[in-house]
Amino acid sequence: MEVAKLIYAKTSEICWVAWVVQGINAIKDIIDYNDPWKKGDNIVYTDQEHLSSGHTWLVLRKKGVEIKKIKNINGKIMVFDMEKAVDENTKIVCINSTSVGSGFTYDIKKVCKITRALGCLEIISLSES
Asked: For residue 2, is it within any domain?
């Protein structure tokens, strides 16, 4: 599958859903089932994502999960800011391949290098906005 090549994933790691929020909720719940969310965990996303992304993660604050939002600089998310936000307690980094707000397109290879070095998952939405 071409999508797998685009985001440096295996075809078995790709999931097609109708809405971004549907996919995020499914992943959030699957993780909770297999490795329950706990105090000290965190999620990283940016202010350039689907609005529903942030709202979906907020429910995890009740479990002590920190929600980290990276702010854009002139419509771009800096790799340095991503590296600062992601740490050994990050379970998920959630981004759109291309920002719905500014049209900024991530270097997916760099994002995956950051996340995989620390063993966290990435949710990369390839949706049209």
From this structure: no
